[in-house]
């Protein structure tokens, strides 16, 4: 299971950890990786879900760069695109999306290895596959749970790029199958009520919430957006 196949990485999209390893953003991703490890000290973190409250908050960019950094740490990493409605991983890593997670969950392919591609170093990626008519049903299935368990045994860490919480139920169905969840919150995009509702939905789904990533923060010293990490949540206080 999960055998290596040959592929070629072409034109990474928003992979700052590869394109600019000495940048402020890359340093923040490294800090994020470290803080996630600290937050998960009481449990063995094998599967990690990255999501957001709504669209456009940068969860896929965080997922991909975090996967690269875990791989740079020496772990064998699998990045799974579970956003079956608006996938990005295949574009980021320049691979085909003809076969992926939906293909295997929907029984279009029998060998899961045909849906997994080596990317950079220790990093493997599993694209979403063609858009299915029943994404929530597939992600909430027992087969998805079995896949995550098997992948967690084969890889050092499995990072799941999941759909936003509020528009669809997909991530809530995934939440209790995942060891830990990180919520990406984009400054000047996310509304406090939306973040609260997303956290409430995750808790209702029995997710283990490790913390939040405050994305696209502008500081006086660094004009480019970067990522900050907190294991608290937005409040009414500014």
Structure in a nutshell:
Its EC number is 2.7.10.2. The protein is built from nine helices and eight strands.
Notes on the structure:
Residues 1-12, 221-227 and 229-238 have low confidence and may be disordered. The protein has nine helices and eight strands. 34% of the residues lie in helices and 18% in strands. It has an eight-stranded mixed sheet with strand order 3-4-2-5-1-6-7-8, with helices on both faces. With 238 residues, the protein is α/β, with parallel strands linked by helices. Pathway: Capsule biogenesis; capsule polysaccharide biosynthesis. InterPro entries: Bact_polysacc_biosynth/exp (IPR050445), P-loop_NTPase (IPR027417), Wzc-like_C (IPR005702), YlxH/NBP35 (IPR033756). Keywords: ATP-binding, Capsule biogenesis/degradation, Exopolysaccharide synthesis, Kinase, Nucleotide-binding, Transferase. This is CpsD/CapB family tyrosine-protein kinase. Its EC number is 2.7.10.2.
Please outline the helices and strands.
Blueprint: H1 16-19, H2 24-39, E1 47-52, H3 59-72, E2 77-81, H4 89-92, H5 101-105, E3 117-118, E4 123-126, H6 135-139, H7 142-154, E5 157-161, H8 170-175, E6 180-186, H9 192-204, E7 209-217, E8 226-230
Parallel strand pairs: 1-5, 1-6, 2-4, 2-5, 6-7
Antiparallel strand pairs: 3-4, 7-8
Helix pairs in contact: 2-3
Attribute tags:
238 residues; alpha/beta; eight-stranded mixed β-sheet; 9 helices; 34% helix; 18% strand; globular; disordered N terminus; disordered C terminus; P-loop_NTPase; ATP-binding
């Amino acid at each position: 299971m999960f055998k290596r196949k040959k592929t070629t990485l072409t034109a990474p999209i928003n992979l700052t950890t590869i394109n600019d390893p000495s940048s402020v953003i890359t340093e923040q991703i490294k800090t994020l990786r470290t803080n996630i490890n600290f937050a998960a000290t009481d449990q063995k973190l094998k599967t990690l879900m990255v999501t957001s409250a709504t669209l456009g908050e940068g969860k896929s960019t965080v997922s991909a760069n975090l996967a690269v950094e875990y791989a740079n740490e020496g772990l064998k990493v699998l990045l799974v695109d579970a956003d079956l409605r608006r996938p990005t991983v295949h574009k980021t890593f320049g691979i085909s999306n003809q076969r992926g997670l939906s293909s295997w969950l929907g029984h279009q392919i029998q060998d899961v290895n045909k849906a997994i591609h080596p990317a950079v170093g220790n990093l493997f990626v599993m694209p979403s596959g063609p858009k299915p008519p029943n994404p929530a049903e597939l992600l909430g299935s027992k087969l998805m749970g079995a896949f995550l368990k098997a992948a967690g045994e084969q890889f050092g860490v499995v990072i799941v790029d999941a759909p936003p919480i509020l528009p669809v139920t997909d991530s809530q169905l995934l939440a209790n199958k995942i060891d830990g969840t990180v919520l990406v919150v984009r400054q000047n995009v996310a509304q406090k009520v939306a973040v609260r509702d997303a956290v409430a939905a995750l808790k209702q789904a029995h997710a283990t919430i490790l913390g939040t990533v405050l994305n696209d923060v502008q500081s006086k010293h660094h004009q480019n957006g970067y990522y900050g990490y907190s294991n608290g949540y937005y409040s009414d206080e500014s």
